[in-house]
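Weekly sync, protein design subgroup
Attendees: M.S., D.O., the rotation student, P.L. (late)

Item 1: inverse folding check
M.S. brought a backbone from last month's batch and wanted to see whether the design step gives back something sensible before we order anything. D.O. pointed out we never logged the input encoding, so this time it goes straight into the notes. Structure tokens as presented (207 positions):
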């Protein structure tokens, strides 16, 4: 078991928490992490691009002119893709861009990302995130005292004051422990995790 120190928001040590070695000592596999991040980004694509094919273009279906004798190329419909304002041949249609990744692979990548934060001393465990008020300037002072830069805050029970105070800080993102993902972990310099959220994360990983 790996022992991590637990602090309060005043940067004072209040105790310790034990974490399974499979998390803290996990190896960083860049190929697995890359696959999971690409999958996550692809799921965020809307996939709402659309063009009209020849059956969807408005206009008369009458043959434009007779087949022979005019000197023009034979044409049967105004909606032909070869004509201006006609339909688009093989154009994009709404679809899902999601790429499937196995659940075990997602879990392995997340464990590796969190483990790297622990080894680099970029993960701080706090006993709670409860604030006395919802003032943003007071929360900024707390973050400066903890020497945190771009930070991902992980909680198991949201504090209303913390949620209000953190909304105006662009370098701070708050997520529930059940919504923790590889992309957010890698996209932030530091992790600020409550003790309960860390134990909840460990329980889901070891399940």
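Designed sequence read out in the meeting:
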């Amino acid at each position: 078991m790996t022992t991590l120190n637990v602090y309060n928001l005043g940067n004072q040590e209040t105790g310790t928490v034990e974490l399974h070695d499979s998390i803290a000592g996990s190896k960083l596999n860049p190929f697995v992490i890359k696959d999971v991040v690409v999958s996550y980004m692809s799921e965020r694509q809307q996939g709402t691009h659309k063009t009209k094919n020849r059956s969807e273009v408005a206009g008369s279906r009458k043959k434009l002119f007779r087949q022979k004798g005019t000197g023009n190329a034979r044409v049967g419909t105004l909606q032909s893709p070869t004509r201006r304002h006609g339909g688009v041949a093989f154009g994009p249609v709404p679809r899902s861009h999601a790429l499937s990744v196995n659940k075990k692979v997602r879990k392995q990548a997340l464990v590796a990302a969190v483990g790297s934060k622990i080894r680099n001393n970029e993960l701080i465990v706090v006993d709670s995130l409860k604030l006395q008020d919802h003032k943003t300037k007071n929360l900024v002072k707390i973050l400066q005292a903890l020497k945190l830069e771009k930070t991902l805050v992980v909680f198991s029970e949201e504090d209303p004051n913390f949620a209000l105070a953190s909304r105006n800080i662009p370098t701070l993102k708050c997520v529930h422990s059940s919504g923790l993902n590889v992309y957010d972990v890698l996209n932030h310099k530091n992790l600020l995790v409550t003790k309960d959220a860390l134990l909840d994360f460990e329980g889901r990983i070891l399940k």
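Discussion: Residues 39 and 100 are 7 Å apart (CA to CA). The chain has a mean pLDDT of 89.
Action: P.L. to compare against the previous round before Friday.
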